[in-house]
Predict the 3D structure of the following.
Amino acid sequence: MNKFNRGLVVALGLLMFGAGEAAWSQTAPVGDAANGKRLYLAVGCFTCHGRSGQGGSYNYPAPALAETKLPLEAFKTFLRVGPNDMPAYTESVLSDKDAADIHAFLRSLPGRRPPKDFPLLNQ
C-alpha cells in the first residue's frame, strides 16, 4: 500500500469512529437520499456494508456507513480510490451527483445505537 493510500485509510478510519469530527464542518446533505438508496443497492455497496449501512464482512470487516461523518469530498475520494478489496468507483461508474446522492442516503440512516438500548446487554 503506498503512502497516500495508507494515510487516507488511517484518516478515514479515524473520522468514521468520531475522532477529529469537530475538524470537519458538516453541512446538510446536498444529494437526493431516495436516489442514493437506489444507487447504493444497484451498484452493490450493500454486499459488504449491509442494506442499511450497518457494516458487515465479506473478505474482511467492512465499516458501518450509516450516519457517516465523512464530508462529501472525503467520501467521494474514498469511493474513487477503493482501498483494500473495495472496488474503485470511477466517475464513469458513479458520477459526482451519484456519489452525493449515496452520501445523502448514508447520512439519513440512523447510526449505531448505544449498548444501553439493548436490554440483553444490560443484564
About this structure: The beta strands are 56-57, 61-62. The first strand starts at residue 56 and ends at 57.
